[in-house]
Amino acid sequence: MHRLDIYRLKDHGQDHGTFSRWTIDGLPFCWGVELPWRNNEPDVSCIPAGTYYAGLIESGKHGTVYELRGVPQRTDIQIHSANFASQLKGCLAPGKEIDTFKGGIKGVTFSRITLGMLMERMGGDEEIQVCVHPPA
User: Fold this and answer.
1) Cα torsion angle, 62, 64, 66, 72, sign
2) Residues 97, 104, 42, 28, Cα dihedral to 10°
3) Residue 93 has what pLDDT?
4) What is the CATH number assigned to the segment(s) 3-133?
5) pLDDT digits (tens, 9 = 90+) for 36-95
6) Which candidate, 116, 96, 119, places its Cα nearest to that of 108?
7) Rounded CA gap, 114 and 130, in Å?
8) Burial letters for 74-112: b for 16+ Cβ neighbours within 10 Å, e otherwise?
9) Are 130 and 122 in contact (CB under 8 A)?
10) CB–CB of 77/90 below 8 Å?
11) Contact by Cβ (8 Å): 80, 118
12) d(CA 97, CA 88)
């Protein structure tokens, strides 16, 4: 079983979200974006720091993705492609880099490609361990 560690950086505010550095089995892999912390409220907040297990599912909207299980008071938390926190409802999105886009909004680049690389790197594991770390 592979382990995905998500090391959160400082929250970048309501408009930008929470960014993170992702490692797989201890090796740097990509960056990520989530919603800002808003007291774990469904659809508007990132999830609490913690250790979760994720299994592969077929999402009608996002295709094959990992869905986290055991997130306190939350359901339907997926790892899927998105470039901006505003495109998420509590889920997590990988990207190649963090960048500033038109209008000064921060986001991640090449999310769809990076998600594909994540799935490939996981080697089709049906289940992975996901450790979300609080901001340093």
Assistant:
1) positive
2) 10
3) 98
4) 2.40.440
5) 999 999 999 999 999 999 999 999 999 999 999 999 999 999 999 999 999 999 999 999
6) 96
7) 17
8) beebbbbbbbbbebbebbbbbbeebeeeeeebbbbebbb
9) no
10) yes
11) no
12) 18
